[in-house]
Amino acid sequence: MSVRSYIEAITMALDEEMDRDQNVFVLGEDVGKRGGVFQATKGLYEKYGELRVMDTPLAESAIAGVGIGASLYGLRPVAEMQFSDFMLPAANQIISEAAKMRYRSNNDWSAPLTIRAPFGGGVHGGLYHSQSMEAIFANIPGLKIVIPSTPYDAKGLLKASIRDNDPVLFFEHKRAYRLLKGEVPETDYVVPLGKADVKREGTDVTVITYGLMVHHVLNAAQRLAEQGISTHVLDLRTIYPLDKESIISAAQKTGKVLLVTEDTKEGSVLSEVAAIIAENCLFELDAPIKRVAAPDAPAMPYAGPLEQAFMVKPEQIEQAIQDLAEF
Amino acid sequence: MSVRSYIEAITMALDEEMDRDQNVFVLGEDVGKRGGVFQATKGLYEKYGELRVMDTPLAESAIAGVGIGASLYGLRPVAEMQFSDFMLPAANQIISEAAKMRYRSNNDWSAPLTIRAPFGGGVHGGLYHSQSMEAIFANIPGLKIVIPSTPYDAKGLLKASIRDNDPVLFFEHKRAYRLLKGEVPETDYVVPLGKADVKREGTDVTVITYGLMVHHVLNAAQRLAEQGISTHVLDLRTIYPLDKESIISAAQKTGKVLLVTEDTKEGSVLSEVAAIIAENCLFELDAPIKRVAAPDAPAMPYAGPLEQAFMVKPEQIEQAIQDLAEF
Amino acid sequence: MIQKMKQTAQVTNRHRALGLTDQDVLSMYENMLKARRVDERLWLLNRAGKIPFVVSCQGQEAAQVGAAFGLNRDKDYVAPYYRDYGFVFAWGMTIREMMLNNFAKAEDPNSGGRQMPGHFGYRKLRMLSHSSPVTTQNPHAVGIALAAKIKGDDIVSFVTFGEGSSNQGDFHEAANFAAVHKLPVIFMCENNHYAISVSLKKQVACAHISDRAIGYGMYGESFDGNDPLAAYAAVKKAADRAHRGEGPTLLEANGYRLMPHTSDDNDMTYRSKEEVDEAKKHDGVVTFAEYLRAIHVLTEDVEREMEERIRKEIDAATNDAEKAPFAEPDSVLHYVYEEKN
Amino acid sequence: MIQKMKQTAQVTNRHRALGLTDQDVLSMYENMLKARRVDERLWLLNRAGKIPFVVSCQGQEAAQVGAAFGLNRDKDYVAPYYRDYGFVFAWGMTIREMMLNNFAKAEDPNSGGRQMPGHFGYRKLRMLSHSSPVTTQNPHAVGIALAAKIKGDDIVSFVTFGEGSSNQGDFHEAANFAAVHKLPVIFMCENNHYAISVSLKKQVACAHISDRAIGYGMYGESFDGNDPLAAYAAVKKAADRAHRGEGPTLLEANGYRLMPHTSDDNDMTYRSKEEVDEAKKHDGVVTFAEYLRAIHVLTEDVEREMEERIRKEIDAATNDAEKAPFAEPDSVLHYVYEEKN
Ligand SMILES: Cc1ncc(C[n+]2csc(CCOP(=O)(O)OP(=O)(O)O)c2C)c(N)n1
Ligand SMILES: Cc1ncc(C[n+]2csc(CCOP(=O)(O)OP(=O)(O)O)c2C)c(N)n1
Ligand SMILES: [Mg+2]
Ligand SMILES: [Mg+2]
């Protein structure tokens, strides 16, 4: 056990899985010599060689599509999309191909491919290096979408994703990479896909969220505890398909639900969470299901003050919890 | 005024707009000589010539991207995607480019492009000629997504889309093309974007839906009226951004809400509708917000019985309304 | 341009020099004929209302079968596209399986009736699963080759697609990837001069799709798509190059689509009967039979027996497939994800 | 391969034959120098913590400026990519505007500070709005040309992109579309031999990006990216072809990226100082100055004044831009859609 950053946890997971299984390999832009633009694959090129840590041409549809092909042969490719914003050229390969491979072949073929992609804002990335892309894909049966919120989960979920026999989109919050640190066992463990996680037990208000927002919510909960407000925090972890049971029981727990995402509001992953609650435990609610999210504008601008204005701020979350508690 | 099919209404709209404005032109695969694989552009090639009714190479990203470029020059391209399933190669152009053009250029440039695409099932199309693709795009600020449910709306909404100064995705239900017929004025009229429409007034149960499902819901409402159940039917028409006010007042009207889509359930456009209601008028509800949708499987299979099993059936809708009425 | 097989008064044996026996070429022809006869039957079944949809291979059998013979049918991986009836027969799919596919029955090995006809995929035969969005299979084929390279396996990965489809981004990205990493991939474009209604000159401005090879730094070649021997030679050469580590090859089978795009299409809205009739003169099934007859390999007896054998097999397969059950309706919920038990 | 300008003991005037006056080439040089000096200043500002990010044009100014001079700067439409500082200066953007862009201030004409630096776009100058996902601008440029053709306007549409980016599907689809419809588009690839850390030979296996032209049936040419006269000549020729209705051209400016990818990059993790030093010997800003001095067009006085003028302008612009206000925070809600009033 040692304290590791979120990105170190990612690198550990990759290293361990490559070491454990010769079929695991990494491909993407700048993942080789450069070790990735965020250094997620640091040291792997030196350790595993250029065939298993492959710098690809600048072509995301090929990265996904070649990854799918390699997965059909029996390998377990881990494809890196340099920024989640740049996954879109690969949308057809991901949605039409990877997600439908098992279904369309009636279980004859499957595509055990993991696609890693840094997402999220707060890094002066401007419109195209800050987006949350998960909602685009969070309606595609056949895909699994995973978003870890801690270094511990990052390692365990990435290992589980690589071992999963279906395609997984694995979004890593780029602001979390170096911001978040935590205990990460050196041992081999996996965190199961498809399971949300109660990150804090509470009785007054339930907050359901994922990604870096978990960190902000936990901080808010901490501060609010001093004012006597007890917050229950559910981290979705797998945001597609959702863990309905955990969502329903978290909502029932307090009867007051706040949903938080840094994605733009309309049509975000939280809409489905709200729909699940409204369909399954409406009468156990004591307050409307509130949402805190980014404004419905394309993405956060580059200029500092505009970026700030766009982002979900910790105080907003705190205020929303408080409002619900007092509701 | 004359009775026209849904697809005839589309062709009328295109013809009228091309006639009215020299800047309107059509591009896509097989839209020229062939008049489109569904014949939506029938007769236009002969009338307006091959430069304004252009057969493009088989390349959807180019169709969208070239369309965007032409729109920047001041034209009003109407791009056809042969099936909505085949829009995905153009996802990057649609989401990263068209949707963000105005925002990213701080209002300097805009992309008044309309992208038409047939969607929906029930035509023996198998996995890739039956899908509902709207949820993928219904979270992208900058885009508008329109789905008409009647010939009248089809004509008026398409004309409004072409005249709109921002990009519009215009999904046409391919099963509706020849199935639905209705009165369509020969005159120049538009149906405003962004406005849902009450297709039937009622007092017991509110059904919110769009596309071909409107037709099924209205039929169900008709039958249920004989049993004394009064159904209020809201047709979303523009499914992004949603008409929140109309949704809220429709929900308030009866306090019992059924949402219907032929898309797969998790993460569909209806999730956002449910979230809006749960956020804004939760206490006016007398029943959980129910959803009728396709199963969470990739898409409907080709084999007849499997296609049938996958599709949302009129009886399911009728039953769900009845259940809510009795709730 | 539609190329025609060179015909001389005195027909010389062209296959021996390629290392093909008389038995080989007869087998080639039988596979071509199988594809043609099955295709013809499918149209009849469609017009009789027994199957909702046909996608046709007519005109492309020669290139397809010749190509299959140029590969190692016990080891290589293939990603055939929806017209490749000739290819998949030569690759080991049975007529019964094909009929099950067209009737969309549970036993269809390609997708159990989930996909439209011609969307092949058969793991047992190392045949990748095909989808409808065109050209998505190209990167998959490259991925197979990359995986084999990583594993140290000496195989070839073969993929086909139409000339219209060669304009998709995925064509470009896959070709470039394969070339940079010198992967053993054979890209074979079946240029049938139409993409639904859009003719070749509205799809591309180059003379041959194989002209694109140079831009990837790979070897390219166009051959007469009506000649199975030309296909065999080109694919064999490309496979040999691949095995020697010389990387991918881009081939163009220059041919013609003899039927409408599918049973939903009316090709007379965009091309003339004269044009189609002219192309039929070069039909590979006809011209190859002529060649085989001229060199006395296809005798009257052999031909009659072959036709008879195929007809019987088609009759039985059609009968079987028609009677075979559809998959259970509930099965639509299955295999979205791995089902462990 | 990095090409070098041919240098002979006796330097001959090369620009006159191209129809360029001494004033023209001085103006070319001044634009190149502007781009270089601005770029250098940006790095200083970044290292001083005043701006968070720099994307650099160093090494590519010659091709950029030469290209701009080859076009009609009053009529043509352009879609420059993020390194095109030299191009946009020659196209009419001021140093002040560039500094506002880099400081992301409200007055930045490109995006009002919404986009990262170098994401150009200026409707007044017929300069399309650039985004980050590479190569998306290529189909836009084709769309401009198509629209002009539909309207009957005689203009040229010019677009640039990196060599790594030439592997994106959009490059392929755009080039093919332009070729099929013989549209007046000039595609200029600025091959600087790196895509972030990935070197040319891991991006493509062809000798020159312009080798891809033949596969589209268009004209292609590679020129020395360090020579603005070569760029001018190639672009001028391509523009002439476009005006004559001969369709698109694919050009490669063969050069080198002298700085790290951006201010976030450390290029010494993937290339050697020796390699960069070697490339610096062919730096177009240096070699073109040498040429101009050798033919006595760039005298000591002219040069000193030019440097002085540029320095002053940069100082003033930096000062201005630093002081200029950011857009109002609330403005993030604006211009998602048309705002009617
Ligand atoms: C991405 C995509 N766009 C459109 C279609 C619809 N479509 C099916 S086949 C076809 C034409 C294909 O032409 P070509 O590649 O020449 O192959 P051919 O059918 O002639 O063998 C089109 C446009 C599709 N399947 N996929
Ligand atoms: C679609 C996409 N993928 C990845 C990136 C990240 N990225 C930005 S620049 C770059 C390298 C571009 O290389 P090249 O095209 O050679 O242009 P250069 O920067 O060398 O001028 C990459 C990978 C991107 N911007 N867009
Ligand atoms: Mg074709
Ligand atoms: Mg480069």
Automatic annotation (TrEMBL), chains A, B:
GO MF term set: oxidoreductase activity
Transketolase-like pyrimidine-binding domain segment(s): 4-179
Gene3D superfamilies: 3.40.50.920, 3.40.50.970
Membrane-crossing residue ranges in chain numbering: none
Entry keyword set: Oxidoreductase, Thiamine pyrophosphate
Cofactors that this protein relies on: thiamine diphosphate
Pfam families, sorted: Transket_pyr, Transketolase_C
Oxidoreductase recorded as keyword: yes
Domain of life: Bacteria
Designated name of the protein: 2-oxoisovalerate dehydrogenase
UniProtKB/TrEMBL annotation, chains C, D:
Broadest EC class assigned to this enzyme: oxidoreductase
Cofactor(s) of this protein: thiamine diphosphate
Catalytic activity of the protein: N(6)-[(R)-lipoyl]-L-lysyl-[protein] + 3-methyl-2-oxobutanoate + H(+) = N(6)-[(R)-S(8)-2-methylpropanoyldihydrolipoyl]-L-lysyl-[protein] + CO2
Domain of life: Bacteria
Dehydrogenase E1 component domain sequence ranges: 30-329
EC number: 1.2.4.4
CDD domains (UniProt xref): TPP_E1_PDC_ADC_BCADC
Keywords: Oxidoreductase, Thiamine pyrophosphate
Recorded family membership: Belongs to the BCKDHA family.
Protein name as catalogued: 2-oxoisovalerate dehydrogenase subunit alpha
Organism: Sporolactobacillus inulinus CASD
